[in-house]
Amino acid sequence: MDAREVAKHASATSCWVVIHGNVYDVTDYLGEHPGGQALLLKCAGADATPEYTKVHATSTVQETLPKSKHLGPLDGSTRQHLRSVKKAKPKEPKQPPGSLQLALCVRLADFEPIARAAISRQAYTYISSAADTLQSHHDNLAQWSKITFIPRVLRDVSASAMDTSTSILGQPCALPFFIAATGLASLTHPDGERALATAAALRGIHFSPSTYSSIPHHEVAQAHRQTLQKISFTNSSLFFQLYVHNGRDKTLQLIRDAREAGYGGLLVTVDTPCVGNRDEDRRLKIEDEVALGAAQPVNSDKVVPGSNSGQLARSLTWADLAWIREAWGHDRPLALKGIQSAEDARLAADAGVTAVYLSNHGGRQLHSAPSCLATLLRIRQQCPEILDLCEVVVDGGCLRGGDVLKAICLGAKAVGLGRPLLYALGAYGMEGVLKAIDILKHELETTMALLGVTRLGQLNSSYVNVAKLAHEIDGMDSYSSKL
């Protein structure tokens, strides 16, 4: 197809794009695109490949659009007649990461302001946004300080005896935290999930790529495997985070692909029948759509119920675990991610999962959702046997190595970290991620020494005071005395 013809279709009423040398009519898909109309409109009549590959696997467009919208290959000899990709507004000035030396980043929170200046507004908004007023996100951050330590003294905590190793989903690792699933990491840095997987392998920790990885899952696995081979180290695994789709065939294919690529665990996300109400994401989409002349920018009072579900399965129930487990393999580790109540933790344990993953999705889903520590306290009060039946892992708002230890004192096996490592990636690439991991390791070892322990297995609830947090949880005022 001649590029001059493609260039004519550059509006909301007729929108054609070129992806990997092929022409597609995406007009009817504008209102359905999860990223908003603006991302497509700015590429109308142009080669969208550079923008597309930031967030999508090669096959996504072929699987998403009906065959009737595949208009054929572009005539390469006419490429110069394509339109240029539109810019909704001038680029904001970026502060180069070098303006603050990486060596001066001494805590995880140091990476966020550097990343904010270094990455695009779209990327920062995507990472930082949360549901409604951000209450759940802010509660996540605040929860950790509401638990205090009770250290023991006059114990031998020689550095040579310090051991931070553990296992998660039965698989050994050097540290009791892992890189949690975060979608579209290449928005933050071109190396995206490939850099995160490499950093995880180099430091001997686990990494959970998202279903919506911006790097194909097999390439992420390849980068991880090649790094382990180079350093002759095996204490690092990949866990595949699964969003269950409307179409069972699509979900089954994702599971098969994860198995074939060598992923060592499956984290089935159960808190996302639809996408949460993220105001800043919506605001940015609307601003871009207006700037690009969208025919019908998203209007909050005209949103159709369920229209924010995308391809997610709203009908997912406990019964579906049977076919998911069958496809994944009964002998392979499986966790349920997004458990937010003791009742559901009990059901998950009864279902025989390897791990219960307590999470409110970084505060990005339900406004006023409970923090993972609040849920963990309820489990300890209402059904403590769960901690013996399966592993418990948590995430949400953790920024310090000492806070990881607080979770372990209360029975968690490990803590997942998402946003902080994305900020480190956006600020300094893989070197930033490695530095962030090293910061946490240093904090872990220092805090363990100050607590009077040398191994994670020595920690228990006697090392923490939960009275302040328990007092804020309805019906648990007297809980601390029952630990």
From TrEMBL:
Keywords: Heme, Iron, Metal-binding, Oxidoreductase. Residues 1-75 form the Cytochrome b5 heme-binding domain. It comes from the Eukaryota. Transmembrane segments: none annotated. Its cofactor is FMN. Residues 80-89 have a biased composition (Basic residues). This is L-lactate dehydrogenase (Cytochrome). The keyword Metal-binding applies. The lineage of its organism: Eukaryota, Fungi, Dikarya, Ascomycota, Pezizomycotina. Residues 100-469 form the FMN hydroxy acid dehydrogenase domain. Belongs to the cytochrome b5 family. PANTHER family: CYTOCHROME B2, MITOCHONDRIAL-RELATED, S -2-HYDROXY-ACID OXIDASE-RELATED. InterPro entries: Aldolase_TIM, Cyt_B5-like_heme/steroid-bd, Cyt_B5-like_heme/steroid_sf, Cyt_B5_heme-BS, FMN-dep_DH, FMN_HAD, FMN_hydac_DH_AS. The keyword Chaperone does not apply. Residues 59-98 are annotated as: Disordered. Pfam families: Cyt-b5, FMN_dh.
